[in-house]
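Below is just one:
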Amino acid sequence: MKFIGNTNTNSLFNAVYTELRDAILEGTLVPGESLIETKISQELGVSRTPVREAIRQLEHDELVRTIPNKGAVVIGISVADIDDMYTIRIFTEGLAAEWATEHISDNEIEQLREIVELQEFYAVKNDYIQVWQLDGRFHTIIYDACKSRILKHVLSNFHSYVARARELSFKTEQRTALSVEEHRLIYEAMRARDGAGAKKLTEQHLINAKKSVLESIKDINA
């Protein structure tokens, strides 16, 4: 974990929370590991108060559980959780794409085009890290363009929760190429203002992504 410098109380809480959440989602803090307030506060260079508040929020997010006589313990994201989140995304993100098609600006369409072209460039070079990072930007633009705070909040959380699993799937050259192709089709549907088409293509994109992610996890655990 990195040192967090002096700042106001609210910013400290956000910084500690983000640090711990990312460590859990990335697998640095593994399920079953105890979160010791004194140790974390020393590592991050902060008082125990923002650490305690961050752990409380992580428990609310169901990434951490408080166990009697043991304290806060990491739960993390299970394979079943990932399965559930992708199933929910299939239904909700298709709707977000449809709504985004109605509201998306010309500037946002241009941003999608640039992202897809960059993904195609990096896919040819087998640079899956760049493709994976651009994948996040692609979906974020759609979340913003759908103009629904609720959908954006839910989908943004799900997308960040499965970030590590998504990265694993992008290590497969076949999935990287297919994902980029799917993004181009979604972009072209949105550019043509075809909301129904964008919805259908997004749903299929997530069906394929779910299958790839779960297979990647299965291979890792085999």
The radius of gyration is 19 Å. The first helix runs from residue 9 to 25.
